[in-house]
Write a structure and sequence with these properties.
The complex is a heterodimer of chains A (487) and B (60).
Chain A: H1 9-16, H2 24-33, H3 38-56, E1 59-62, H4 64-79, E2 91-95, H5 123-130, E3 134-139, H6 173-181, E4 186-190, H7 197-203, E5 206-209, E6 230-234, H8 237-247, E7 277-281, H9 293-308, E8 312-316, H10 321-346, H11 355-360, H12 367-387, E9 393-397, H13 422-427, E10 431-438, E11 444-450, H14 456-467, H15 480-486
Parallel strand pairs in A: 2-3, 2-4, 7-8, 7-9
Antiparallel strand pairs in A: 1-3, 4-6, 5-6, 5-10, 9-11, 10-11
Chain B: H1 4-15, H2 24-42
Classes of the chains: A alpha/beta (487), B mainly alpha (60).
Chain lengths: 487, 60
């Protein structure tokens, strides 16, 4: 792999101070050539996760003993010549709103019944287990995949490993932190308005929001049933492909699961994007006055690299982009409120102090608001489909700014700030967030690649093509300084 | 014209939610931004005659 040597000095410093971090693909190769065992890899990761959890808050529960047992089983299988595929023996993080045998599910909330999902694997977890994966533990989520941390509730507060004063974003905060800091080689997140892509963006790795229905979402505590999806998070697009080809596919337990063939995604990532047509939706996504120039410039630089590989790009417009973000928020709020209404009435103070007013917003929408947002959703999806008659992918920034300082964040501002991710939950389309560089101060930047329905292979192929000529996704935070903090 | 505080009190009573005083400011902000979102969604004339993206299929 050739590398882009144009990274700034802060990022280079961070890289030079790093531990050895493996991609899933690298670890899979090492497990097969005998240079590591899953037990050794898992023990190292469990040890790191345990040591750094006080500083980073990546995990609600670390299932160390069970993980080592899974790792030992993977090693025994290798020794016996039984190879269940690239995820065998690979340590993963499972977001704590997804059911997993051997660990409770909390949704980071005192409200969820501790018996929810007990003793069961969600179908997606069962598939990963059958593929020989190792589960390091249940990773931190924003409360019910929506709120912001409330330390008084007793759950770990997640921190960005690049700067612990900054947000790791949500809601799949823990998996995002774990991948960035080397506390798992990949994992599961869920995405309703950007909850896989946001953490991937600010923690400096890759995260894929899949087509609605691509991965069965039964066994997951719902946030908004018509927008929710489960997506892979990992250092590289290639690793996300390895995860997705196990995760995806029909399951009758989810009425929204799509009975659509699952390609061997990883075999389609060949670096060839010659003739690819890229649309750049300029209004709102590239010209908003709250979009930071460093973010925009990094995305456009990435697009130029893709053009240098044979793609073409053209500026275009998607009408009503600002309203599409609002429609996503409204539908999300209404569906989430319907799920939580009775508990908000009876157990208001059991919710976190920043979760409860956010959930209560759903009480302030009318049935007509929800129906009208759903009309808008139809119209906007049709507009996006029209655009895709001319383009293979659309590319935008993943977020208007790098990770914000937690002290400066105001949950009520989320509705008035621009956001570039919920649009694709509204349309159900696949979208991958990948690193696109670093700020002058050393914070990760990210770009988003959006594709047609079930075109995960295309968006991952474009992401992988860029990751073959850049190394942003391989850089990681200087976690050794955090060991001192944790100590 | 009723103030947002007065409208909020009515909506909270209807919904059965009884937030303590310490949450009133955050709830009022949530109410104001929520109603603003509604106005924006209804401002898009092109969406008026669309079939809502709500799916129901009759089945046996």
């Amino acid at each position: 792999m050739s590398t882009d040597l144009s990274m700034n000095s802060s990022a280079a410093d961070a890289a030079s101070h790093s531990h050895k971090f493996l991609t899933i693909a690298d670890a899979a190769a090492a497990l097969r050539d005998g240079s590591i065992t899953s037990v050794a890899l898992t023990a190292d990761i469990v040890e790191k996760a345990t040591a750094l959890n006080p500083a980073l808050g990546a995990y609600v529960t670390i299932t160390g003993d069970a993980a080592l047992a899974q790792a030992a089983a993977a090693d025994v299988a290798f020794a016996a010549g039984n190879d269940f595929g690239p995820l065998q023996g690979i340590p993963l993080a499972i977001k704590d709103i997804i059911a997993m045998k051997g660990a409770g599910t909390t949704a980071n909330s005192r409200v969820l019944d501790p018996a929810w999902g007990a003793g069961t694997d969600a179908p997606v977890v069962a598939r990963l287990r059958a593929a020989g994966s190792v589960f390091v533990g249940k990773s931190t989520t924003s409360e019910f995949a929506l709120g912001m941390p409330d330390a008084s509730k007793g759950f770990p507060v997640p921190h960005n490993p690049w700067d612990v004063e900054r947000t790791p974003a949500g809601s799949s905060s823990g998996t995002g932190i774990a991948v960035a800091a080397g506390l798992a080689l990949g994992g599961l997140g869920t995405d309703t308005g950007g909850s896989v892509r946001g953490p991937a963006c600010v923690n400096g790795h890759t995260g894929l929001k899949v087509t609605f229905g691509r991965v069965p979402k039964s066994g997951v505590v719902p946030l908004a049933f018509s927008l929710d999806s489960i997506g892979p998070m990992a250092r590289s697009a290639y690793d996300c492909a390895l995860l997705l080809e196990v995760m995806a596919g029909y399951d009758a337990s989810d009425p929204n699961a799509a009975d659509v063939e699952v390609p061997k995604y990883s075999e389609l990532l060949n670096g060839d994007i010659d003739g690819l047509k890229i649309g750049l939706p300029i209004p709102y996504f590239f010209d908003h006055d709250q979009l930071e120039p460093e973010v925009r410039d990094a995305v456009l630089s990435g697009v130029q690299q893709l053009v240098g590989m044979g793609a073409t790009s053209k500026e275009m417009a998607l009408p009503y982009a600002a309203e599409a973000k609002d429609a996503n928020m409204l539908i999300l709020g209404a569906e989430a409120y319907a799920y939580h209404r009775n508990n908000l009435v009876n157990r208001w103070e059991d919710y976190g102090n920043l979760t409860r007013p956010t959930l209560a917003r759903g009480a302030f929408y009318t049935a007509a608001d929800y129906a009208q947002a759903s009309r808008f959703r139809s119209m906007w999806s049709a507009e996006v489909a029209k655009a895709f008659e001319h383009y293979d992918v659309l590319i935008t920034p993943s977020a208007p700014s790098p990770a914000q300082l937690v002290k400066d964040m105001d949950p009520s501002q989320r509705l008035v700030q621009p956001s570039y991710t919920g649009h694709w939950n509204l349309t159900g389309l696949p979208a991958v967030a990948i690193p696109s560089g670093f700020t002058a101060s050393g914070l990760p930047l990210s770009m988003q690649i959006i594709g047609k329905p079930f075109a995960e292979a295309t968006v991952l192929k474009v992401a992988d093509a860029l990751q073959r000529v850049t190394n942003w996704h391989l850089l990681h935070p200087p976690v050794e300084t955090l060991y001192a903090t944790a100590a | 014209m009723h103030s947002n505080e007065e409208k909020l009190a009515v909506v909270l009573e209807m919904s059965g939610i009884t937030p303590p005083a310490e949450d009133q400011e955050a709830i009022l902000r949530a109410f104001s931004t929520g109603r603003e979102l509604s106005k924006l969604i209804f401002s898009v004339a092109q969406a008026r005659y669309e079939e809502p993206a709500l799916i129901f299929s009759a089945r046996v």
